[in-house]
Amino acid sequence: PHVGGSRLRVHISNRYGSGPLRIARASVALRQSGAALVAASSRLLRFAGASAVTIPAGGEAVSDPADLTVAAFEDLAVSLYLDDPTGPATGHLTGRERSYTTAGQTGDHTADQAGDAFVASTTTVSYVDAVDVLEPASVAAAVVFGDSLTDGYENAGTGGSGEDRGGIDLNHRYPDFLARRLLAEPGGPRVSVVNAGISGNSLLTDGVTGLGGPTGAARSDADVLGVAGVTDAIVLEGTNDIAVLATADQITAALGQIVTRLRAAGLHVLIGTIPPAGTGLLNLGSLGTPVYIESAYNVIRVAVNRWIRSGASGADGIVDFDAALRGTVQPNELDPSLDSGDHLHPSYLGYARMAAAVDLADLRGGARCGEASQRMRTTLHARAAARPIGRLRLTGSLVTAPGVDCAGVDVVVRALRAGHTVLKRRVRLTAACRFATTRALEVRGRIEVRVGFPGSPTLLPSRARAIHLTAR
Asked: How many Å apart are CA 212 and CA 225, to the nearest integer?
């Protein structure tokens, strides 16, 4: 976990199973080393009070909360005993961490403190989808969404991280480095970083190289909006689409769709520019068949990045990963000092550089209202719907840094045909810097809704985009 706590719950997934998955017993513990557990740390996991659970195909089970104190970046071991045939296993094929398995038909070892029964290891994470650590409401989650550059793949051969074993068991992904930066902030963490990267993932095609999972748009609801406490998302996708020479228009349309979907759900969204890749043959090793990156790759990438930098994606901000990783001599190639050796994936030094490119002030986090000593940036989100019987429903939020004062937003509604104002109100923000109101409308036809925040002694003013509706 990227943030510590004393109570947690575990998500177990059968999303891609072909039939019911029975978990006969499950536990969570602190890991000592290898498959061995810290003494007396194992906790039986229960599901609605029961020690066993059967998960239907396509479903998920969330454990009851378990009391276990864990620190940020302290290894947890989730142990599952499967006493029936499982069918296809839902899993994260390149999890970048070793998991351990027993031989078949050896019984239940979920409570074993020693790891002697666990005779094999794998870097695939099966069934365990997430761990939620209970935190105060002021701590939020930022989901980092993307492909292998987010997943943390490194070439294990020679290159910038040759001694780094390809990043296995080292927590050298860029979301890990970003989490460390947030942990080092004065006053404790305000954001926990959740890694939703899948190596080989594509915006346009399911299962790139046989392991990439559903397209970015198809999985954004489950993998971003389904995360507990999520307030922010950082989107970095498109490398695998460019590798098969999808057009810039296809890629930007898919990115725009994801950004729009996440922002419509109330998230604060940052979008990343796509880093360069070397020319010639890229040997992806265990990831699948090598692919060729021709000069056309960078032509498409530059066009996509131009679109991102223009603000046309509709995201709340930009993280310039391209500028962070490109070479000074050959800007269409990775900086050689940050290359893990395959000219596509950064070394751990490159992943640290990616994390450094994120402006921590751009992460909304658990914005709450209180006191502050300086004026801070704000971003206003608003959604409106014209309901039957002449009523307007308006919801939204004021995005700012934690620890700022509450205030109200001004709502102005104009009848477009008549050109006059039909409603002008001040709506108060809640303690979570959100607002919701329903107002009667004495008008029919096209209307324009404008929401503005006038500013305060500690907050800069902000306006939401005008919303056009038809009042009936």
From this structure: 19
